[in-house]
Design a protein that fits this description.
Number of helices: 8
Radius of gyration: 19 Å
Largest sheet: 5 strands, parallel
Distance between the termini: 46 Å
Helix content: 40-55%
Oligomer: single chain
Strand order of the largest sheet: 3-9-8-4-5
């Protein structure tokens, strides 16, 4: 063993203490789709050395849905989000940057096989006409501020990667539909930018936004499905 290992390990235990209710070091949550659960799964071990099969998707992280147009990306993300939220008393927000004419309630209740009451109890549709990359970032931080006010009694039971029972914030799954339709304020406000400039500014702004919300997502159990 290294000369400093014991001291470093003890120091790390103090420094690595996580925020109560966060999604750090949690078992994944099943999505209802075996292929997704196996692909997103890992193996962990309990304190007694027992093998724990960690199937599903991680909470508090970014999951990217990629595929051809009309390939079912949004449908799948909606179904998985509802499955996760229904298990853990969570909430789902659909940030509709596409701003189509779809009836969201009818679509979601149909493809998820849920009632109108279920929809109203956990789904929120965000379609602000002034939505931008910066607006979306502020919205994620607004969710975090709401979660800060929750008490331990309002948290839900789950397990960490060691198989120990823990209390976590109820998950909030945010579906970003879609990244190509999300533009920064600078692009929305200017009519003089050419396509090359628009593409570069969008890529930079969206990348910076995703980087800036990573820690707050984990701390307050906010899961982002980006399409």
């Amino acid at each position: 063993m290294g000369i400093l290992t014991n001291d470093l390990q003890e120091d790390a235990k103090k420094e690595n203490k996580k925020t109560e209710g966060s999604s750090q070091d949690l078992m994944h949550v099943p999505t209802g789709y075996d292929s997704v659960d196996v692909y997103g799964g890992t193996v962990s071990f309990s304190d007694e050395g027992e093998t724990l099969l960690n199937y599903g998707l991680p909470l508090g992280k970014l999951t990217l849905f990629v595929g051809n147009s009309q390939g079912g990306k949004t449908t799948l993300s909606i179904q998985i989000a509802d499955n996760i939220a229904s298990q853990l008393d969570g909430d789902v927000v659909l940030a509709d940057f596409e701003r189509g004419t779809v009836d969201h309630q009818s679509r979601i209740t149909t493809i998820c096989g849920i009632t109108a009451e279920d929809y109203k109890s956990r789904w929120t549709i965000l379609r602000n006409p002034n939505m931008s990359t910066e607006y979306f970032k502020k919205f994620i931080f607004k969710i975090a501020e709401m979660k800060k006010k929750l008490t331990t009694k309002q948290m839900v039971d789950w397990q960490d990667l060691r198989g120990n029972n823990v209390k976590i914030y109820p998950p909030t799954i945010v579906i970003l539909d879609s990244i190509p339709a999300m533009k920064p304020d600078e692009v929305l406000a200017s009519a003089d930018l050419d396509n090359n400039m628009i593409g570069g500014k969008m890529a930079a702004a969206n990348s910076n936004m995703l980087t800036s919300i990573t820690q707050v997502m984990e701390t307050y159990n906010i899961t982002l499905f980006a399409i």
